[in-house]
Amino acid sequence: MYNVINRRKATNSTKRKPRGPPTNKKGMPEFLEALKVMIKAAPTTLIRKLARDSSISMPTMIKAVRDLRMKSRACPPCQLLMDKNRENRVIRGKKLLNWLKCNDTTVKIFSDKKMFTAD
């Protein structure tokens, strides 16, 4: 109410100032066309890199790519195993299987997540 009264005193009107055009790049057809060209030129580019190059946020870039009905074909990097590590995994796997055959009454739970939480 305070702002409306002050606006009335200053301009003899209660209307707000006219706003400029929206600054959302995603809605601009020029941006979407440029993005389509960028993706077609290098389809394996990460969306994160496209967002950084275009100086917009990553969620906005994800929505823009989805609006174009396109997908990122970037393959995430995977862990490379050396030959020595692969041999160790095979040896440990065989030991684990032999131990499970002998101790079938013992139940072991293998998990990579916390099973219990302390409050």
pLDDT averaged over residues: 81
Could you give a short account of the major beta sheet? none
β-strand percent reads under 5%
Radius of gyration over C-alpha positions, nearest whole angstrom: 29 Å
Shape: elongated
Label this structure with key terms.
119 residues, 5 helices, elongated
Would you give an account of this structure?
- The chain is mainly α.
- It has a domain at 22-77.
- 51% of the residues lie in helices and 0% in strands.
- The chain has five helices and no strands.
- The mean pLDDT is 81.
In short:
This protein is an all-alpha fold and 119 residues long.
Write the layout of secondary structure elements.
Layout: H1 2-11, H2 29-41, H3 47-54, H4 58-67, H5 83-102
